[in-house]
Design brief:
Blueprint: E1 2-3, H1 10-38, H2 46-69, E2 74-75, H3 85-107, H4 116-131, H5 134-163, H6 168-181, H7 186-206, H8 209-229, H9 235-239, H10 243-263
Parallel strand pairs: 1-2
Helix pairs in contact: 1-2, 2-5, 3-7, 3-8, 3-10, 5-6, 5-7, 5-8, 6-7, 7-8
Length: 271
């Protein structure tokens, strides 16, 4: 079989949504079954959350591979090639700058009120479950999430939209928006949307999914370390600076490597 220039159209989009719901349903059933078998509710454990996450996100990828790609005798494949050192020296500072901007933006969203208050409480409780098992948390957030989410949102959705004729900038923006929505809460939506723009740009420019996976893992690792080993909830608290200074720092750190990576024409992305 040869690798196909697969396309993401309306049918493929519906298929991916169905795959997510099927995956989540299977994960729930597995949790129910294991809890009954072990005579203990494992659904509150971090290890089950990691397993449920794996099942939920692998399922739509498999659905797309089987029902869209392989039906034409092709196979789902991605470029995981490494890049010259100069590329890494640009994309990691660019990502960190956007992390600071995303942190500032997230702090603008209220965490109290009749609607957002209970939702924020649920959001923090879910993360508290993960914090009970640092190993499971690292496996889920730093290994599984970057690989599976980049395959799904950049490797399949963004690339598939471009293959289907969507303009690259629109495909990057749409995939970032969907990436944010799938996090199912306004605080992660804001951060995921902004960071998704960087991940999409890097994947489009380098054509290597490894680059966006590494950046995604970098972001999640920093976030995990803050939650596990710091009393600070934000970068402004960690650095002891105001939110406004944090925003300015983020813009400066982001915009310089962004110029050389995305705008300046003499950057070479391949050896």
């Amino acid at each position: 079989m040869e690798t196909q220039n697969y396309k993401v159209d309306f049918f493929a989009g519906i298929l991916l949504i169905i795959g997510l719901f099927v995956g989540a349903s299977v994960a729930y059933a597995v949790g129910q079954g294991l809890s009954a078998l072990l005579a203990d509710d494992i659904r509150e454990t971090a290890w089950y959350q990691a397993l449920a996450y794996l099942i939920t996100f692998v399922t739509p990828i498999l659905f797309f591979d089987f029902f869209v790609v392989r039906k034409d005798g092709a196979k789902l494949g991605f470029d995981f090639s490494t890049k010259p050192l100069r590329v890494y020296l640009l994309i990691f500072p660019m990502m960190f700058g956007m992390m600071l901007i995303a942190d500032y933006t997230t702090q603008l969203i209220p965490t109290t009120g009749d609607l957002l208050g209970p939702l924020y409480k649920l959001y923090t409780e879910e993360f508290a479950k993960l914090l009970k098992s640092p190993v499971a948390m690292i496996i889920m957030t730093v290994i599984l999430a970057p690989i599976l989410e980049e395959i799904l949102f950049r490797g399949i959705i963004m690339k598939g939209m471009i293959n289907n004729g969507t303009k690259p900038l629109l495909a990057i923006a749409l995939s970032a928006f969907i990436f944010g929505v799938v996090h199912f809460n306004p605080w992660q939506f804001a951060g995921a949307l902004l960071l998704g723009l960087v991940l999409g740009l890097v994947y489009y420019k380098t054509k290597s999914l490894l680059m966006s996976i590494l950046l995604h893992a970098f972001n999640n690792l920093i976030s995990a370390m803050l939650m596990l080993y710091s009393d600070s909830e934000t970068f402004s608290q960690l650095f002891g600076i105001s939110n406004e200074i944090l925003l300015i720092m983020g813009i400066v750190i982001f915009i310089i490597p962004f110029y050389f990576f995305a705008i300046k024409k003499n950057i070479i992305y391949k050896d």
